[in-house]
Amino acid sequence: MQSRTLVQPAQLLVRFGLGTAFLSAVADRFGLWGPPGTAGVAWGDFEHFTGYTRTITWFLPVVLTPLLAWLATMGEALFGVLLLLGYRTRESALGSTALLSTFALSMTVSSPGLHGVFTYSVLSAAGGAFLLANVPDPIWSLDALLRSVKVESEA
């Protein structure tokens, strides 16, 4: 049996970790952490991120690359904000699982071996998101606040 005392802080940690990781990646591709080539910066601008997107989606038509780069960015921004707020947590976690799993699969088929998937902890993040989707009633969330307001208004 799960201990509610451990599940609730764990779900908060997973929400915060995934949410900030998504938003940090989005910030990187818009140059907020510095220009391309800066230490600790993966892309530095959207052009470099689009190039990376092409690298990991080489098996798809090149015309889809900009769309895929934007879809990934919009998904990460949306899920990042929703997870930090704890709003529609289950749906956001399931969407995050799908996004991260797609990313892991693309990384795996585009490079020799699983080094990148392991180094960037993509499978760990996907697993954490999937576990988060199965946490019943996260109490430290906007979802919980809205549930309590609804219960009070129905009383």
UniProtKB/TrEMBL annotation:
It is a multi-pass membrane protein. The chain crosses the membrane at residues 12-32, 58-85, 92-111. Keywords: Membrane, Transmembrane, Transmembrane helix. Coiled coil: none annotated. InterPro entries: DoxX. It holds the Pfam family DoxX. It is found in: Membrane. The keyword Transmembrane applies. This is DoxX family membrane protein.
